[in-house]
Design a protein that fits this description.
Blueprint lengths: L2 H24 L2 H7 L6 H8 E2 L4 E3 L6 H9 L2 H4 L4 E3 L7 H9 L8 E3 L6 H9 L9 E3 L7 H9 L8 E3 L7 H10 L5 E3 L5
């Protein structure tokens, strides 16, 4: 066998791996997430997330997804005292916004952090019409692929009378939408619409 043939054979596995890696990276994040076959022990994740006597639930980075949120919301008795809920980097979609909008599982909730997910316009619009989150004082919706429709639904919402802080950084709004948000939430202590570089 010539050295050229040997080099060709040695390069073959590398080429196959390179093609597979490129295919994987070109897949949408939802499809890649489905390839992650490890099972999440939701009970353990939820139990480990509680602190401060059950008033704080931190699930940031746990990637529970919509299925995990659905399971969490079924545990109403454990959620009644939660004042702060952190759902950053949980791979939540529009469905999560709708679930949160329809739940009455958090009567004491004051701070809801959902940055770095995928609520988009549909999930944000649903959340803007939430009937069970009227006690919120802080809402973090940054980096959720929200456009003008979702932002304007928030601007028109009357569901958050106690809101003091709203974070919408990292989303995509026209200047008119930013103006509408500024007018609607002029009384807030802190309104974040753009990221500082």
């Amino acid at each position: 066998m010539t050295s050229r043939a040997q080099a060709g054979r040695a390069a073959f596995p590398f080429r196959v791996l390179l093609v597979l890696a490129l295919l994987f990276l070109s897949m949408p994040w939802q499809a890649r997430a489905q390839l992650d076959v490890h099972e999440i022990d939701y009970e353990k994740v939820f139990a480990e997330g509680f602190s401060r006597g059950g008033t704080v639930l931190n699930l940031s980075g746990k990637k529970i997804g919509d299925e995990g949120l659905k399971r969490l919301l079924q545990k109403k008795d454990r959620l009644r005292k939660v004042k702060k809920l952190d759902l950053r980097y949980c791979e939540l979609t529009e469905a999560a916004g709708k679930m949160l909008a329809q739940t009455d599982a958090f009567p004491a909730l004051k701070a809801l952090e959902i940055r770095h997910n995928f609520l988009m316009d549909a999930g944000t619009s649903a959340l803007a019409d939430a009937s069970g989150l009227g006690g919120l004082e802080k809402l973090g919706l940054g980096w959720n692929e929200v456009r003008d429709a979702g932002a304007l639904a928030l601007a028109d919402s009357k569901r958050f009378p106690k809101l003091k802080k709203l974070d919408l950084r990292g989303n995509y709004f026209a200047d008119k939408t930013k103006e509408a948000l500024g007018k609607s939430f002029a009384g807030l202590r802190d309104l974040k619409l753009t990221s500082s570089l």
